[in-house]
């Protein structure tokens, strides 16, 4: 649809946030939180685009709490997110893939929201210039929690504050850094996508009230089949049925698409339909993806768009995290695709 003169400048993220606030869907504190996160995403988008010419590719030379070799951009993106959230004055605690434990924001800047995030998702792709992203979720505090690092008792309380089920999420979203930079978010009232217009440095509404396709969608499955031999039998049978069932029923079999960045694979699934999965296997029974800042925020989005997020046996948003970096098997996509998958894992 072409933009008429009356609409120019009216469909930026900030205008959308003000409209949500005026409608009472969010309060001004949340609007500030989301605007700060959008600022972090703009900065990361610029860094990702210039990584190869700004000496920001390659390893940082440290390992994170996940046991992963941190990329330079993992570390830098984490700092950008932390600084933007701290500067917002609305954040009390942050939990990040790249922080061993939750980080309390010093009292002078502290607010009432908890933000959990994966500052750079799919970072194994960064040196190859393939799509990467950031993922975030926002909770309210269950209790006042100001942390100083050496106070074990306070830190323990802080962890319980952060470890909330996805059902408690007030907002969640992701930003994909790809052929376009798209910020997709929900505040619990539908899913909205904003594309960064680099010519003016603003996110502009480009995907209004997103809904994942149902059976009319594309037959796409997105798994790292390199782990097939370690999958449980039911899952192997499911995978075989995707590849042969179509042909037997005379319909087109499924297509395989796997970017290796959850954000990229998720965004395509949300737009085209299908299923993405990172199952558990005999080596890693809980799979690879982290519940708190990958699976739960993405599951809030997919449910708001009419899809499902599951471990294969349990709804993701119902799970009570026991620790910040806990992993869960993850399947997400069109409702009928997840239902079909779950029927093999009974
Ligand atoms: P991160 O880069 O934040 O550690 O996440 C990577 C995840 C996810 O983005 C992606 O779907 C998955 O790892 C890919 O894992 P494999 O390379 O094992 O397929
Ligand atoms: Mn990582
Ligand atoms: Mn990730
Ligand atoms: Mn990451």
Structural class call reads alpha+beta
Into which percentage range does the β-strand content fall?
Answer: 15-25%
Bound molecules: 2,5-anhydro-1,6-di-O-phosphono-D-glucitol, manganese (II) ion
Low-pLDDT sequence parts = none
Q: What separation lies between the terminal Cα atoms?
A: 45 Å
Rounded mean pLDDT score: 93
Q: Report the strand count.
A: 15
- Helical residue percent band: 25-40%
Q: Calculate Rg over CA atoms.
A: 20 Å
The count of helical stretches stands at 8
* Silhouette: globular
Walk across the major sheet and give the strand order.
4-3-5-6-7-8-9-10
| Quaternary state of the chains | single chain
**Major beta sheet, specifics?**
8 strands, mixed
Succession of helices and strands: HHEEHEEEEHEEEEEHEHEHEEH
Cofactor: Mg(2+)
Family: Belongs to the FBPase class 1 family.
Domain Fructose-1-6-bisphosphatase class 1 C-terminal: 218-345
EC number: 3.1.3.11
What secondary-structure arrangement, pairings included, does this model have?
Blueprint: H1 13-22, H2 28-50, E1 59-63, E2 69-71, H3 72-88, E3 91-96, E4 103-104, E5 110-121, E6 132-140, H4 152-162, E7 171-177, E8 181-186, E9 191-197, E10 202-207, E11 220-222, H5 233-248, E12 255-256, H6 262-272, E13 275-278, H7 291-304, E14 308-310, E15 330-333, H8 335-343
Helix pairs in contact: 1-2, 2-3
The structure holds 2,5-anhydro-1,6-di-O-phosphono-D-glucitol and manganese (II) ion (MN) (3 copies).
2,5-anhydro-1,6-di-O-phosphono-D-glucitol (AHG) is lined by residues 68, 97, 118, 121-124, 224, 260-262, 265, 278, 288.
């Amino acid at each position: 649809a072409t933009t008429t003169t009356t609409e120019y400048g009216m469909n930026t993220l900030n205008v959308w946030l003000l409209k949500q606030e005026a409608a009472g869907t969010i309060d001004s504190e949340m609007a500030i939180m989301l605007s700060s996160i959008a600022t972090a995403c703009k900065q990361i988008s610029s860094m990702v685009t210039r990584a190869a010419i700004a000496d920001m590719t390659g390893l940082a030379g440290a390992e994170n709490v996940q046991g992963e070799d941190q990329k330079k951009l993992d570390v830098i993106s984490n700092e950008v997110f932390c600084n933007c959230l701290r500067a917002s004055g609305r954040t009390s605690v942050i939990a990040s893939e790249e922080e061993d434990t939750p980080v309390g924001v010093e009292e002078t800047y502290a607010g009432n929201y908890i933000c959990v995030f994966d500052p750079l998702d799919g970072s194994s792709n960064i040196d190859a210039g393939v799509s990467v992203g950031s993922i975030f979720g926002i909770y309210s505090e269950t209790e006042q929690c100001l942390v100083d690092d050496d106070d074990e008792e306070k830190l323990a309380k802080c962890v319980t504050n952060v470890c909330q089920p996805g059902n408690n999420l007030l907002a969640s979203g992701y930003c994909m850094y790809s052929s376009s930079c798209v910020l997709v978010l929900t505040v619990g009232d539908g899913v909205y996508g904003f594309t960064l217009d680099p010519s003016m440095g603003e996110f502009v509404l480009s995907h209004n009230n997103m809904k994942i396709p149902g059976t009319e969608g594309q037959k796409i499955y997105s798994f790292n089949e390199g782990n097939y031999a370690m999958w449980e039998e039911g899952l192997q049978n499911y995978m075989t049925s995707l590849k042969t069932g179509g042909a037997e029923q005379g319909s087109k079999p499924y297509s395989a698409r796997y970017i290796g960045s959850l954000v990229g694979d998720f965004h395509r699934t949300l737009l085209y339909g299908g299923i993405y999965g990172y199952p558990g296997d005999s080596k890693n029974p809980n799979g690879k993806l982290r519940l708190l800042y990958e699976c739960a925020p993405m599951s809030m989005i997919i449910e708001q768009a009419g899809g499902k997020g599951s471990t294969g046996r349990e709804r993701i948003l119902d799970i009570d995290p026991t620790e910040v970096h806990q992993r869960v098997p993850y399947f997400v996509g069109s409702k009928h695709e997840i239902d079909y998958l779950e029927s093999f894992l009974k």
